[in-house]
């Protein structure tokens, strides 16, 4: 976890410690401290605040993903500004949860991310969906849509509609590992770091629109 408020950091540490399913392997009070984490043990999930001293949490996301490929980054912040939220997503954040939610909701967000979802507080989800819906479709000069296989397109259409891996697998008659592999292929082709970022790019490029 990366959190500069010692009281909230202690709350998260205690919450995860008693969950019975999760273990805190590293903490930091700034982006600079987080970048200095050793590569082992590699974390599976990072809870990152936005308003850190020095480099912001949103900027930190990309650095963490470079150091820990496959890391799931969930922003846990009081900041809900449009630009901040979208920057975190563009840099590869998997989810965005507002401070003030309950302990069980934070645990549920972690479990959701590990299960292939994109956990977001309702206010953030509405904001992201609203930005996606109102953003005009743009031409696709890089041909990103054309680079997707038909299966990858089907998967991404459902992801852009808000479906998690389990729902995508059920609707397309696929195994969940197959869905995960499709998403990893999309990430590699498009150079994105998360399902949410891929969904935003898909919608903005005109994917799924008539």
Explained architecture:
It is a single chain. Strands 1-2-3 form a 3-stranded parallel sheet, with helices on both faces. The protein folds into 2 domains: 6-132, Response regulator (Rossmann fold); 137-204, Arc Repressor Mutant, subunit A (Orthogonal Bundle), CATH 1.10.10.10. Helix 8 packs across helix 9 (176-190). It is built from 10 helices and 3 strands. Helices cover 50% and strands 7% of the residues. The chain is globular, with a radius of gyration of 17 Å. It has helices spanning 6-17, 31-35, 57-67, 82-90, 103-114, 122-134, 150-160, 165-172, 176-190, 195-204, and strands at 45-48, 72-77, 95-98. It has 210 residues and is mainly α. The mean pLDDT is 86.
- Determine Rg (CA atoms, Å): 17 Å
Task: Quote the CATH topology of the largest domain.
Answer: Rossmann fold
Going by CATH, the architecture of the largest domain would be 3-Layer(aba) Sandwich
- Number of structural units classed as domains: 2
Run of helices and strands:
HHEHEHEHHHHHH
| Share of residues in helices | 40-55%
Helix count equals 10
- Strand portion: 5-15%
Output mean pLDDT.
86
Order of adjacent strands in the largest pleated sheet: 1-2-3
Assembly context of the chains: single chain
- Looking at this structure, what is the CATH superfamily of the largest domain? Response regulator
């Amino acid at each position: 976890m990366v959190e500069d408020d010692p009281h909230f950091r202690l709350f998260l540490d205690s919450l995860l410690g008693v969950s019975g399913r999760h273990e805190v392997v590293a903490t930091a009070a700034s982006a600079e401290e987080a970048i200095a984490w050793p590569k082992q043990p590699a974390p599976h999930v990072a809870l990152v605040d936005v308003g850190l001293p020095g480099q912001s949490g949103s900027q930190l996301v990309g650095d963490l993903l470079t150091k820990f490929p496959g890391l799931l980054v969930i922003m846990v912040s009081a900041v809900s500004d449009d630009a901040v939220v979208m920057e975190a997503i563009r840099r590869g954040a998997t989810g965005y949860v507002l401070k003030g939610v309950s302990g069980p909701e934070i645990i549920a967000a972690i479990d959701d991310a590990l299960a292939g979802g994109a956990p977001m507080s309702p206010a953030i989800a509405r904001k992201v969906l609203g930005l996606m819906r109102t953003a005009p479709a743009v031409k696709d000069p890089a041909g990103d849509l054309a680079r997707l296989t038909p299966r990858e397109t089907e998967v991404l259409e459902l992801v852009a509609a808000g479906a998690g891996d389990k729902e995508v697998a059920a609707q397309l008659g696929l195994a969940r590992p197959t869905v995960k592999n499709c998403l990893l292929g999309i990430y590699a082709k498009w150079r994105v770091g998360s399902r949410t970022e891929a969904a935003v790019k898909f919608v903005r490029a005109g994917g799924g629109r008539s």
